[in-house]
Amino acid sequence: MTSRPTLILLLVLLACTVYAQELYNVRVGTFQDARSDDFTELQELGFVYGLPREGQLVEVYIGNYSSQDKATAVTEDLRKRGYRNAAPFSIPGTSESPVPYIQIALRGRNRALNWASLERAGKLYIDATDGTTKVVTGPYASPADATQALADIRGLGFADAFVKSLRPKSLIPVGVFETGIKKPLIPIELRQPQPDAQADQDSTAPATAPANTQTMPAQVPVTSTPPPAPASATAPTPAPAPAENTPLLGEEAVAASQPPATVPVAEPMRVDRPGLPTIQMRPKRHSTAELQRVLKEKGFYDGAIDGLYGPGTTKAYEAAWTQLAPLRKYRILAAAEGDGAAPGNAPASWPEVAVALAVADDLAAGLGDAEVAQAMQRERGALLNATAPLVAATAARAKTWETTVWTNLDEWATQDPLHAQLLSALRVAYYQSQTRLEAMYAQRGMDAIAARDLATASLQNLLGAQLDRFL
């Protein structure tokens, strides 16, 4: 069995390999008096950031992306939206050594960041890849300094903050363009020594991007690209914010990146809502066995992994539903954003399915396939109302989809502790949903195999567009 120190070393080496690879971003254009709010429609594609130039000009970029194909696809999307001269650029891999930072937030699709509150942690940078936005502060001179600062940052309300090593040139500095905060800010004292070499680092954007001409409302298009400004020129000095605006992150978050004033207050969905299909103890189910496995890993289940949905499994699931922190977060998000979206007692309105959908939306990180989503929506009614088994080819495709998605999600979860938390919530919700769907199809006279195939295909239909990036 691999020892814990060896496992940690392997994960560190994996992280170093990821950050050493070449990254890509996309230049949107150069604009006068531009603000982040002018590009709200683009935030579903990635993190939008700006670099100030001379004469109140701002060069706007979006990124980062792990492959040239992804950057090219975003470029084509931008051109369709009217940004005719959008162009992809590579950010060469570097041999620089990783240095300590502290991650304080992670944002999924269409979840705004509360910059005023986040800036209390110190100077901010964005670690963005393929639509997933992570907010970090630093750098720190040594791991010991970062560990000391971590206690202070957690004391500010960032309970799930943690230390991680990153290569500075892969990060995007946060400045006035991103935050919209232009007033003078008062620094706070946190243990955050910054090496001179890191304080003066360049931004991740290319230094010699081509000229561009765009038409934006209330903006003057330009056709020249002034020299790049240093990252330090765009980063405001952090300021204290009211305690009530402190975002709760990771396991404790309701919406980790939104100010409390804008988060709807909703009663978390109950596990035992009337009208749900009753799950019988027999037959043995693969989905129930997987549910038992994750519940055991999280300390809620101590029985045998036998695939029988008996009283022990029921009790363990109910305990996880109310006590597992990632599930609490997504129960509230699903209740606030998705409850009532599906008519009557349709499967999409079931508590476990609604939570799985909420997690999948975050996992999509703005990269969900809209065309796939529309196609699946058209097929959904017939599939969920099916009274006959699937044809063999359709059942095989659903099984392949499920295997591929979970394999890639498992690999993705090793890259970040917050990824692992998201995956835990999805596993519980997914396998409970699959078990419930099997029970629904069994009530229509399906045998165990036909019920499982239909349940898997239904989950592919419900979640496939959001999880398309993991295929």
From TrEMBL:
Q: Which InterPro entries match?
A: PGBD-like_sf, SPOR-like_sf
Compositional bias, Low complexity, is annotated for: 194-223
Which region ranges are annotated with the description Disordered? 194-245, 267-287
- Which PROSITE patterns does the record cross-reference, listed alphabetically? PROKAR_LIPOPROTEIN
What is the protein's given name? SPOR domain-containing protein
